[in-house]
Amino acid sequence: MKVWERVVEARLRKVVEICEQQYGFMPRKSTTDAIFALRILMEKYRDGQKELHCVFVDLEKAYDRVPREELWYCMRKSGVAEKYVRVVQDMYERSRTVVRCAVGQTEEFNVEVGLHQGSALSPFLFAIVMDQLSEEVRQESPWTMMFADDIVICSESREQVEENLERWRFALERRGMKVSRSKTEYMCVNEREGSGTVRLQGEEVKKVQEFKYLGSTVQSNGECGKEVKKRVQAGWNGWRKVSGVLCDQKISARIKGKVYRTVVRPAMLYGLETVSLRKRQESELEVAELKMLRFSLGVTRLDRIRNEYIRGTAHVGRLGDKVRETRLRWFGHVQRRERPGRLAVINGTMNSAVYQKILKDNVRPSVCDLKLKRTWVLQQDNDPKHTSKSTSEWLKKNKMKTLEWPSQSPDLNPIEMLWHDLKKVVHARKPSNVAELQQFCKDEWAKIPPQRCNRLIASYRKHLIAVVAAKGGPTSY
């Protein structure tokens, strides 16, 4: 049956397009993406000294509450062919179950609501339902993010997030779902005095300073100390589960190291790709790991055996290096996505202050992460905000060397060609207002094929050679 469900799921995914706000059970998406999006949004608002209001919505028994008629309606509205709707209906026809407990087993009874538990098809069917139910109320990611039935609603004001929460409640509950009043929680980032709280149908939503989102603890003050402690605790819990193997003196250190890397380390590393660890916090993780390894190998501090020898015996590298490795692996996963990425619309005007903030938030951290030496040079064109007095002083203060840029020199960055493509097609559609302009830009940006991006990058070397050979003259590019 599961094989047949997988076949049906694969065919449904070809015709149904789920919104970008849904991260659960979607290809090339994971909990890491949603956690990172939330953390980076909170970080930017803290840096800008602005409030960010987040409501974490929990649905009561979400899978068990989906009305079957609502499921058929959502499938048809999503463009699923009628033959596949009937296939799924056949799976749910005359479904029966029993309840087994300590005193015995009940008689069989019909189940006429909800999705099948343990079904390979149920997660995608639920995603279809949530996609249709939230069509009129969801905002762009990261202002609205969903991971199956875990929903995050963000806004710049408490009144707005309260209004959005009520709209979500109405949209879900009128179609058979139920928002949990006890588990839905509210958190305010960079809170000022008198921010108040959020109410749902007159009932006050629980206000928290931290929330466990998709297994990763996020704190309103931006710290990650509690998340590090949770990772240490999760590591010890995993270690205790397999301590019978790890503490068995008859098992070789190599096998113990393999069991440790398979069971314990993933629990300690979960979600750390999205966290900026301080040296003290990284040290806290490594100290806990070394304790586990010493217990596993039957070694104490009194034996005066160096940590490097312990790691080498168990074939376990430094945890800090592994964190950086997983971070790079996830970055590569993001870079390999098929689309050129979501187009972000920035409200306001780009000026020298905004440009300097971009340099501070992006260029400087990249230089540190890549461990570039003092010989690195920043390349920028002669845009007025790049050459302004305040920007020049900022660059000098931060000891950033810039490459001399002759006037009227061509900008050969591949992104410039994508901007050209975008301007051309949007101009042809003739938007009549700003809202249409933004929507047209997003629509056309999403249509850019990955092959176009790959060709631009592959031809970059030819562009440079042609410009040098022309000695200031025009080129075919």
Automatic annotation (TrEMBL):
Per its UniProt entry, what is the enzyme's top EC class, as one word?
Answer: hydrolase
Please state which protein family the record places this protein in.
Answer: Belongs to the beta type-B retroviral polymerase family. HERV class-II K(HML-2) pol subfamily.
Entry EC no(s): 3.1.26.4
Q: Organism source for this protein?
A: Hemibagrus guttatus
InterPro entries of this UniProt entry? DNA/RNA_pol_sf, Rev_trsase/Diguanyl_cyclase, RNaseH_sf, RT_dom, Tc1-like_DDE_dom
Pfam assignment, any one: DDE_3
Give the top-rank taxon of the lineage listed in the UniProt record for this protein.
Answer: Eukaryota
Q: Would you tell me the protein name for this molecule?
A: ribonuclease H
Q: Which PROSITE patterns does the record associate with it?
A: RT_POL
Tell me the ranges covered by the Reverse transcriptase domain, including all copies.
Answer: 1-218
Q: Name a GO molecular-function annotation.
A: RNA-DNA hybrid ribonuclease activity
GO process terms (BP): DNA metabolic process
